[in-house]
Amino acid sequence: MAIPSDFELIKNIVEGLDYHRLIKKSVIVLEKPFGFDYKSAKKLNNFLLNFFPEKMIYRIDHYLAKDLVQDILALRFANPIFVPIWNNKYIQDITINIWEKGGIRNRGQYYEGSGVIKDMIQNHALQLLALTLMERPKSLSYNDIDLAKTNIFKKIKLYDCGRRAPVAIGQYEGYRQEKYVDPKSLVETFVSMVLEVDDDNWRGVPIHIVSGKKMAKKTTDIIVNFKNIEHCFWNQDRCQIKNNQIRINIQPHNDIHLQLNSEFDPVSKCAIPTVLRFGFEDNKFILKDSYENALQDLFCQDRFTCTNSSEILLAWRLIDRIMKLLELNRKEKLFIYNAKNLVKILEKESCLVKKE
What is the DSSP letter of 263? Predict the structure, then answer.
């Protein structure tokens, strides 16, 4: 079902299929968004369970079908060099960027009821967060991976930014002139938020999520910054070494960058960073489209690209809390931006935004 997430519409279709005896032994596939808040998602899920067993409900998220997203499992769990340092003892902060260069493209009716937080954060961004931070699952089975992600969703909360707010929202210049958009719309097309996973492995590590339309470029990245070594030879005013960093570009370059301080300048006596790139120049010809992967998984009855009801409801519970906080003063906090002035605005509005 690639249709609007409208309960009555889905209800009519499912009841019609049931009336004509077309449901037995069938699988139902629904694209995101699954509901528009916690209450509607729970209502939709309970309704579907009257007709389908849980294993026959595929709540698909095409971001999980992207090749570089699936590669996160290999990077994290097939390389023992990363396992002992993947925690708050060694990691300083994590950033997840989902930037789009274009606007809403005549989708005003949908976007006015959604906004970027419900459209991108509740599903895509939080799924990337869960895969990046989850503990090693017992196996690569859908159930074990889902359990590992669900354990992360249970512990996500807003990061304490002190006097500054952990969430900043904006709207791109010209949005209110888009087709089907309210001329006085307060719907956000940009969000910068800081989250935290409240457990022993990740407590204290800020997770910055930035997503928006009409950004300077189109890119989706996961950036992991590692802490510098205490009492390092080069941590001096004359010679500051850069943090080790892993950058996973999910699109458009589909590659992984690893920043290491691997060169030594004999004149300045400084350690110089080198960036190693893992990828192929012809990635765009090797990697498959995410929907192609999703359809292949569907016909192979592989549920990796799907999310279960627990993940979705926990994500909506977090988003509902964030939306409730924003609604109290949305008019005053919503800023109008363009790609050039965005960073300058955010330096005033948010407790953290990366300048990459």
Answer: E
Q: How far apart are the first and last CA of the chain?
A: 37
- To which residue do tokens 């849980």 refer? 54
CB 224 within 8 A of CB 91: yes
65 contacts 307 by C-beta, under 8 angstroms: no
Enter the tokens of residue 261: 């301080």
Considering only CA atoms, which of 224, 226, 263, 262 is closest in space to residue 246?
Answer: 224
Contact 320, 41 (CB under 8 A): no
Amino acid at 151: N
Q: How far is CA 236 from the centre of its chain?
A: 36
- The number of CA neighbours under 13 Å toward the Cβ of 337 is 29
State pTM to two decimals: 0.92
Distance from CA of residue 77 to its chain's centroid? 20
Question: In the 8-state DSSP scheme, what is residue 346?
Answer: H
Q: Cβ atoms within 10 A of the Cβ of 277, count?
A: 12
- Catalytic positions: 124
Alpha helices in the chain (DSSP H): 7-19, 38-48, 67-77, 108-112, 115-116, 126-133, 142-153, 283-286, 290-299, 309-327, 330-333, 342-349
Per-residue pLDDT of the chain (356 residues; tens, 9 = 90+): 888 888 999 999 999 999 999 998 888 999 888 999 999 999 999 999 999 999 899 999 989 988 889 899 999 999 999 999 999 999 999 999 999 999 999 889 999 999 999 999 999 999 999 999 999 999 989 999 999 999 999 999 999 988 888 999 999 999 999 999 999 999 999 999 999 999 999 999 999 999 999 999 999 999 999 998 776 666 666 667 788 999 999 989 889 999 998 877 777 777 788 999 988 666 666 778 888 888 888 888 888 889 999 999 999 999 999 999 998 778 888 999 998 899 888 887 777 665 44
The token pair at 229 is 């070594």
Q: Given the structure tokens 């899920």, which residue do they identify?
A: 45
Residue identified by tokens 């549920």 is 303
- Using CA atoms, how far apart are residues 44 and 40, in angstroms rounded to an integer? 6
